[in-house]
Amino acid sequence: MAVINPAKTEVPTVEVTAIAARDVARARSFAKKHGIPRVFDTYDQLIHDADIDAIYIGLPNSHHCEWTIKALQAGKHVLCEKPISNNAQEAETMAVAAEKSGKVLMEAFHYRYHPLIQRVRELILTNAMESPLRHVHVKFAFAVFSSNDIRWQYDLGGGSMMDTGCYTANCVRYLIGEELDIVSATATPLRKDGRVDQSMRAELQTTSGSSVTALIETSMWSLIPRISIDIRGANGQAQITATNWLAPHVVYNNVTLKTASGKKTSESFTKARSTYGLMLEAFADATLNNNRAAILTDAHDAVLNMRLIDSIYTSAGMSIRESRAEK
């Protein structure tokens, strides 16, 4: 739905013309419900169709690398769901394939295209807190109740750090504007499969050795959804907070600033467009108009994000997600 609804209501230059799935009957039912004119029996048929310009890959994480590369080699632009791959090595291979093909490869971190998160970054860059940046705390937690959900399956690239966690990793990197090293990481393993993290907590510091630190907390077993940003300055009371930075077009979309001098202001982003529509618009601009600057979450950024995720898993004493060929 990250593509279908925005294409219908927000981005007229994009048309969803075909889908493919392992279960053709389900694909046909889905296509009928959403007005998609064509259904292919296989993924190969879809990516090699001459009338299709771009492919959206919403497969399990473990399948992102294979089908992204195949789509790029077939001459298609690719919008790939996050995380872009199972591990950093796969992401690097995908980035090389994108470079060779000359096509766009974009990771679908939709929140990055919304004015709320961009405003938070602007407040940091302009020293709106009247105090140097010292700490960024990003949290994303909710509950996945079904034990059969693919997000709990190791072989499909499951785990909280691969789902909610990839957002938090991307967010702290964006807000701080630097790459990060791991200070410590602690995982809560899933009872039925200790390879899968139910939740993850990671303390980070900048690679450059600056005094800026970060904390990310992520979970797929939180009965109370939590999506928040808390930024602190060197001064004890300087602070920036943001609620629901992930999907501010839905509800709870304020950014609050408290300066070192005690002044407090709040901005609401209620009237802003959906994160998905803004992301799809950027993808269309890059592919149709060759405006590569519109892509804020490109293949290079995806590689850096996967490197951080792999490092967090390693620090927490857990295995990184294996490539399918390694299993």
UniProtKB/TrEMBL annotation:
All copies of the Gfo/Idh/MocA-like oxidoreductase N-terminal domain together span: 4-108
Q: Which GO terms describe its molecular function?
A: D-xylose 1-dehydrogenase (NADP+) activity; nucleotide binding
Annotated ranges, domain GFO/IDH/MocA-like oxidoreductase: 118-238
Catalyzed reactions per annotation:
D-xylose + NADP(+) = D-xylono-1,5-lactone + NADPH + H(+)
Question: InterPro entries in the record, alphabetically?
Answer: Gfo/Idh/MocA-like_OxRdtase_N (IPR000683), Gfo/Idh/MocA_domain (IPR050984), GFO_IDH_MocA-like_dom (IPR055170), NAD(P)-bd_dom_sf (IPR036291)
Q: Does the keyword Transmembrane helix apply?
A: no
Top-level lineage group = Eukaryota
Q: Does the entry feature the keyword Nucleotide-binding, yes or no?
A: no
Q: Which Pfam families match?
A: GFO_IDH_MocA, GFO_IDH_MocA_C3
What is the main EC category here? oxidoreductase
| Keyword terms | Oxidoreductase
Similarity field: Belongs to the Gfo/Idh/MocA family.
Q: PANTHER family in the record, alphabetically? A: OXIDOREDUCTASES (PTHR22604), TRANS-1,2-DIHYDROBENZENE-1,2-DIOL DEHYDROGENASE (PTHR22604:SF105)
Name assigned to this protein: D-xylose 1-dehydrogenase (NADP(+), D-xylono-1,5-lactone-forming)
The scientific name of the source species is Capsaspora owczarzaki (strain ATCC 30864)
